[in-house]
Amino acid sequence: MKINKPKHDVNPDLAKERLKCNFNIEEVTNIIDGGKDKTVQRKKIEDIALNNGASLDEVPEECLSIKERYENAVRKSCVYGNLVRNEMLEITGIENFESPVLRRTADAFFKDISPFMLHLGMFVPTLIGQCTPEQTAEWLPKALDMQIIGAYAQTELGHGTFIRGLETTATYNPEKEEFVLHSPTITSYKWWAGGLGKTANHCVVMAQLYTQGKCHGTHLFIVKIRDLDTHMPLPGITVGEIGPRMGFSSADNGFLRFDHFRIPRENMLMKHAKVEKDGVYVKSAKHGKLTYGTMVFIRVTLVSEMSFNISKAATIAIRYSAVRRQTELRPNEPEPQILDYPTQQHKLFICIATAHAFQLTSCWLWNTFQAVLADMKKGNVDTLPELHALSSCLKAVSTSDALSHIEQCRFACGGHGYMLSSNLPFIYSFVAATRTYEGDYTVLLLQTARFLVKASEQAEAGKKLTQTVSYLNRTANADRLNWDNTHEGIIKSFQVIAAGKIGQCVKSIRDRTASGMDYEDAWLMTTVQLVGAAEAHCRAVLLNTYWSEMRKITEASSADVKKVMHQLAVLYLMYWALEKTGDLLKYSSVSKKDLDELQRRYEELLAELRPNAVGLVDAFDLRDEILHSSLGSYDGRVYERLIEEAHKSPLNDEPVNQSFHKYTKPLMLGKL
Ligand SMILES: CCCCCCCC(=O)SCCNC(=O)CCNC(=O)[C@H](O)C(C)(C)COP(=O)(O)OP(=O)(O)OC[C@H]1O[C@@H](n2cnc3c(N)ncnc32)[C@H](O)[C@@H]1OP(=O)(O)O
Ligand SMILES: Cc1cc2nc3c(=O)[nH]c(=O)nc-3n(C[C@H](O)[C@H](O)[C@H](O)COP(=O)(O)OP(=O)(O)OC[C@H]3O[C@@H](n4cnc5c(N)ncnc54)[C@H](O)[C@@H]3O)c2cc1C
Known about the structure:
Layout: H1 12-20, H2 25-33, H3 36-50, H4 66-92, H5 100-109, H6 117-130, H7 133-144, E1 150-153, E2 169-173, E3 178-182, E4 190-193, E5 202-211, E6 214-224, E7 237-241, E8 254-258, E9 261-264, E10 273-275, E11 281-283, H8 293-323, H9 342-377, H10 384-412, H11 424-436, H12 441-460, H13 471-475, H14 487-514, H15 519-525, H16 527-553, H17 559-579, H18 581-587, H19 592-609, H20 613-618, H21 624-627, H22 638-647, H23 658-668
Parallel strand pairs: 1-5, 2-5
Antiparallel strand pairs: 2-3, 3-9, 4-8, 5-6, 7-8, 10-11
Helix pairs in contact: 2-3, 3-4, 3-5, 6-7, 6-8, 8-9, 8-10, 8-11, 9-10, 9-16, 9-17, 9-19, 10-11, 10-12, 10-16, 12-14, 12-16, 14-15, 14-16, 14-17, 14-18, 16-17, 17-19
């Protein structure tokens, strides 16, 4: 495989690590990419995007002021957007505008976030999912060609989670054939939408639809908010940026207020419901929640996004751990590479395994999503509830796990991991937002729990359940599982844990209603357990999917690749079994002796994976431009890069800062 050759000599420790690797790295890269042809395509796109130096910053993003950062991000977004429009989409095919490859190359341009991210990320998908064919023909080409730039304005100051509680109104006026958009209260300000503050000239807005004096709930509208020539906000629109935040610093997240702002009737996105010219409301959707479709789509794509972010953090931390030496083990012996410490391996190898687990699961979820879309095209919405339950819990658990693994990677890099130049804080703050946006962790797990409780009741009634919950049919009456010390045994035990927890929730709700509580209160009182049950279900799905997809995908692989991929999957199973020993003790016959044995095998596995650690992160094939890390580059010039980055700090522009003469010296002389 062609590796982009480093300009400098590779750090000798890192070079030695690469000699130790005993499997074919390219084969694993192909597996992660989804096939050899996909790797070739990805590399071609990366060459187009990254070989012209357009992504480079003279001054690191983090050393710029808020305004400079935004302006620089817009400059780069335009260069990048132009490349996407003119060259990259030709290779992926226009229908793959959301391809993870494009997402990956964008990271080379922005350590933080592109202000255009939500344009392709949510505005375009909403047009695709929510427009009639006529509306698609009107808006989509303009959006894909970037003649219009859009945002997705759903969340308000007062409500993000509870969509039905949104307050913005869209009231139809049949005389003028217009909707009047209005923000009646302070809490109805649209708040948070990425790219809305300064960049977008259009946005999709979610508002309560009123016609003929009746509210029909939330619907989507496309709204032009700025003049296309001057970019000034239109009369009736108040729009701006919401202020500094933990991350997303260059994404101009915005606020928006409508003052009786009029839009044509045709600007209601009418695929699933419409308002006729005379004001009659007609609903065509077979399912009440199809206007939430963009959210389901993004939740599905976030699982792969989490795999990508963990792989970046793991690459940085493992290469650094091969270069870094610390603490004598025995007097007068050389200090070991910190990667030799089992505790370091425990922090990091699970990150490699998790990146694989999420990548394989995300491909499987994507195929499930496509199958549901195909069903819905034929008018069958029966499979949507399972997809909603699945995408909700996988989004919640993958973003939450990614966040804690990325933080472990930062811990694994000690003090240097705290430097912005390591890129770990940027990756962390990005992923921290994903745990909240597109549906908060707890809220989404409770959505899955709703589905699980119903499924459990159906299993109890002897009904055959759909694939992802079919284990409830097998385990409904099982009390404690006989512990089986195999890989399949571990997966089965997680299904039994999930079934046990769901059963316990159903029992708690029934006990509470039996003692006089109404159902809503009984549900509320059980929500701590319900979140735990939905998480357990998600773990069972993840373990089962990773294990079976890994075996399928490596069927034709070389023996060495098969072995290392198998070791990673086993590591993942054991890691989670050891994390959840309390649950195993509660729901299976596992003994202390079994758990001690599992711990010993886990520690042996860390040692077996140790020689391949650098090879495994090299297989993620993340170019230095994408990693943006002083600690994680391919050549391992860690200390040289830290010094180079320190010199870029604007505080080093002059030997004495003016504040010395203005403040410090007067203080020293007692003249302040
Ligand atoms: C590149 C990308 C960058 C992205 C940047 C970030 C962008 C954003 O954050 S955009 C804003 C995203 N916002 C959110 O995700 C909000 C989260 N909230 C929600 O999704 C919903 O309000 C939710 C699901 C919590 C509750 O919805 P609500 O309308 O109150 O429904 P609820 O009463 O709980 O459920 C009613 C039924 O609808 C079902 N349902 C809810 N949502 C869906 C859905 N999306 N699909 C299918 N069914 C659904 C429920 O399962 C339930 O079914 P049943 O009655 O059979 O049990
Ligand atoms: C970086 C970033 C970018 C974003 N981009 C966009 C965008 O482009 N467009 C857009 O429309 N929105 C966007 N959002 C908004 C985002 O979707 C919401 O913040 C998110 O859906 C959570 O809603 P909330 O903020 O109202 O939280 P809340 O719902 O107020 O949550 C606060 C706490 O209450 C808990 N809680 C809430 N409801 C329940 C319940 N029913 N049961 C139990 N616990 C509950 C939650 O678990 C949480 O702990 C963005 C947010 C961020 C951080």
